[in-house]
């Protein structure tokens, strides 16, 4: 049952990030609702409403056709314009910030829902149009269906106004950074809470001589059903070590699984079915992507073609908060079931993560004194944060030393060098 649930969850996470997901649902809903209304009209729904509130219903078939046709043409124009705006947003975000931002923008539910409202209303109006007879009298017209078509069109106009407002906000860098920050914090806090619930000591056996098994798929190692694998381990009296961290891009026949006991093909197949691969990355599945995205935003902002140090400074502020939260997480990840540790998962260690981020930023920003000062302040803040591992602070101090050395070799003015030395002297 766990495998079925995991596969369903993996499939859902894949399709919900697709821009056509919600529009497709609304389209199906509009189609079904249109035929439901046709059925209810055949049972005399409009006649009942006409007797009670005649002012709300159209009394002439030609008038009804004209109204629905006008609504339909306007909605198609709105939908085309809205899709064009979405494509423009994606293009600008890719060129100005980072192509890695596209999956997150595409999966924005607000854009998908608004486009879905358009599409569902258009399909409803089309099939309602078929049920109207030109020249029909008021007692033979689907008056309720026409009234609903008008109401749905008004809702689309309201949604279009909100869409324009939301689009103007979505393209702003502060909104993009906020979204990345919130998604990464949610994911990190979820992982930290799980670690707190499982008080696991680092007594996992040495895996160097364990049986090694290889990946059967290409793609990003996106997610894993730890409960399902732990159940397999418990049933077969073994322990598993996943040798690659989440978010890694794996090729076929690369070492992925180590087992304390030898596994047959059937058990291996069950384990592989509990691991999902994809061609894209989402922060909700892998918080490391947030560090990559913010780093690329900083590098893009500091490139000669963009030259926007303000954006780089904002991104460093967000990086500082996420790094501080990451220091509350262990470097090693385990999974416990029935008070027994069955699974160990390789993770990107804090020192490695900090180095990867700082190495990229140093290369492109060491010439800018303001950015270097901001990075020093970030590292000083991290150094005074409570950490689960003393090695975290050692890694921070090492990055400070490397950054200062690189910056001093780059600066040409004595004042910049003096300010930097004084700032580091307070470390």
UniProtKB/TrEMBL annotation:
Pfam families: DUF2254. This is Putative membrane protein. InterPro entries: DUF2254_membrane (IPR018723). The chain crosses the membrane at residues 20-40, 64-90, 111-132, 144-164. The keyword Membrane applies. It comes from the Bacteria. The lineage of its organism: Bacteria, Pseudomonadati, Bacteroidota, Flavobacteriia, Flavobacteriales. Keywords: Membrane, Transmembrane, Transmembrane helix.
